[in-house]
Amino acid sequence: MSFRPNYNQQRADRNRVKEAKKAEKLRRQQEEVAERRAAAEGTAEKDADTTA
To answer: 23: which of 1, 38, 48, 49 is 20 to 30 A away, CA to CA?
Structure first.
């Protein structure tokens, strides 16, 4: 005897997976932005040191 499908639970599971994927993507993008900003600030400091 099989179980009746629980559509609300299945939908909640799918939504939970999608939200986790979105959160991971956003976190990865924020890390990349932080790395680029740190690199840009590092080059700006080097330029300021060489011109002074």
So the answer is: 38
Is the pLDDT at 52 greater than 60, yes or no? no
Q: Three-state DSSP class for 52?
A: coil
Query: How many domains does the chain contain in total?
Result: 1
What is the DSSP code string of 20-46? Answer: HHHHHHHHHHHHHHHHHHHHHHHHHHH
pLDDT digits (tens, 9 = 90+) for 6-47: 999 999 999 999 999 999 999 999 999 999 999 998 887 776
**Residue 51 included in any domain:** yes
Q: Is residue 48 part of a domain?
A: yes
Report how far residue 5's alpha carbon sits from residue 30's, in angstroms, rounded to the nearest whole number: 39
